[in-house]
Amino acid sequence: MEATFAIIVTDEIQNPVREAGIILSIGQEGWTNMDGYVAFQVPTETAFQFSVHKQGYDTTAAPVVTITQNTDFRYIARRLAPLVRPLHIEDLRFIDDAGQEYIYKGATNFLLFQRFLEGEDIEPLLYPGAEVYRTTLVMKYIPNLIGFRDLRPENYPHYWTGLDDFAEYLLVRGKRLRIGVLTGYRFFAGACRS
Length: 194
Description:
Elements: E1 2-10, E2 21-24, E3 28-31, E4 37-43, E5 50-53, E6 57-58, E7 71-76, E8 78-79, E9 87-90, E10 93-96, E11 106-108, H1 112-117, E12 132-139, H2 141-145, H3 159-171, E13 176-183, H4 187-193
Parallel strand pairs: 1-7, 11-12, 12-13
Antiparallel strand pairs: 1-4, 2-3, 2-5, 6-8, 9-10
């Protein structure tokens, strides 16, 4: 017989962990959805273990489980300490939490977020030595020049969750994000005058 084994992966404060890889020792694997949820059909009375894989999280293996009926299992993935240190301002300088002056080492790539939304591998686009990436959230002319659609939320159904994932993608690599909200939308200027 089989039963449904559902895994709900959250962080310590119950936020769902999206797109975490789940591997069962009985040869099944899957990915959590937007709610941190994934379900498997597994044989009852069979002992197995599962592991959770998500960059930026401590995901030690779960205990061995044996189920006899449909089961929901909550797994807490502990977020690792970010590689990016918090900053505060002293006079005209940025200071990190260790008391060291922070020197801006950034790179501008207006299309980085849009390329991420399009599903491109952006790892090769990250510059060695750059700690901050400046990108844009809404843009028209630059994407149109290379054949992309306008960068705006209504053109990407996963825009807001994608922005979350993009920020996390940079964070786990020790990078900061600097965002330009609008680029290349002239009609906003007219709207502001009225």
